[in-house]
Design goal:
- The structure holds 2 protein chains of 2 kinds.
- Helix content of chain A is about 0%, strand content about 55%.
- Chain A is mainly beta.
- In chain A, the strands form 2 sheets. In chain A, strands 2, 4, 5, 9, 10 and 11 form a 6-stranded mixed beta sheet that branches. Chain A has a 5-stranded antiparallel beta sheet with strand order 1-3-8-7-6, with no helix packed on it.
- The termini of chain A are far apart.
- Chain B has strands spanning about 5, 10-15, 20-25, 30-40, 40-50, 55, 65-70, 75-80, 90-95, 110, 115.
- In chain B, strand 7 and strand 8 form a beta hairpin.
- The termini of chain B are far apart.
- The relative contact order of chain B is 0.33.
- Classes of the chains: A mainly beta, B mainly beta.
- At the A-B interface, strand 4 and strand 5 of A face strand 5, strand 9 and strand 10 of B.
Chain lengths: ~110, ~120
């Protein structure tokens, strides 16, 4: 089955710094990847997605990079703000189904 | 725009009681998902529907759990009888899915039901 791992369970950064959250996956057939942000007491919130035919996608202050060769996904947050403090999950779609497989999450803490 | 709506937000009940969780997906979405989140196991997919039809229920823990989707705008997850180990946060999500998969659309989550079984 698919497994999704994260390199660090926690990440602490200073306000204004850039943050990078990493994710590794094992199934090379996965073709759709998503990053979610979950704040305390709320559901996961969609941040950005990327399809396997791309290696980079940018949103507002966020960039997702996909390296299919080493099966690695990363989320970059520019100029991190206190409101970015949350748990971040990577997730990927198993080919041929709607089943998202989630990583265990990285807790990002932004220090003022 | 209205997102996924779940009710109740919190539920505390005694073991052995029946629990019913409710979900209203985003209008126009045709795939609906039920997840359970715990500290130990993270986010687990329990079951998902496409066009009101259950597609994969392999994540449903046991026969005590059942889910229905009588129409495109409503789904329930029922636990009967409930047990303390069922305590968790239960999320519903919806997406613009495609029959047979490969829709590559993000799932949008509700804010969950925090369930405590005493």
């Amino acid at each position: 089955g698919e497994s999704v791992g994260l390199h660090l369970p926690t990440l602490s950064v200073q306000e204004g710094d850039n943050s990078i959250i990493n994710c590794a996956y094992s199934n090379s057939a996965s073709d759709y990847f998503i990053w979610y942000k979950q704040e305390s007491g709320k559901g996961p919130q969609f941040i950005i997605d990327i399809r396997s035919n791309m290696d980079k996608r940018q949103g507002q202050r966020v960039t997702v990079l996909l390296n299919k060769t080493v099966k690695h996904l990363s989320l970059q947050i520019a100029a991190t703000q206190p409101g970015d403090s949350a748990v971040y999950f990577c997730a990927l779609l198993q080919g041929g189904s709607e089943k998202l497989v989630f990583g265990k999450g990285t807790k990002l803490t932004v220090n003022p | 725009d209205a997102g996924v709506i779940q009710s109740p937000r919190h539920e505390v009940t005694e073991m052995g009681q029946e629990v019913t969780l409710r979900c209203k997906p985003i209008s126009g979405h045709n795939s609906l998902f039920w997840y359970r989140q715990t500290m130990m196991r993270g986010l687990e997919l329990l079951i998902y529907f496409n066009n009101n039809v259950p597609i994969d229920d392999s994540g449903m823990p046991e026969d005590r759990f059942s889910a229905k989707m009588p129409n495109a705008s409503f789904s329930t997850l029922k636990i009967q009888p409930s047990e303390p180990r069922d305590s968790a946060v239960y999320f519903c999500a919806s997406s613009l899915g495609a029959t047979g998969g490969y829709s590559n659309q993000p799932q949008h989550f509700g804010d969950g039901t925090r369930l405590s079984i005493l």
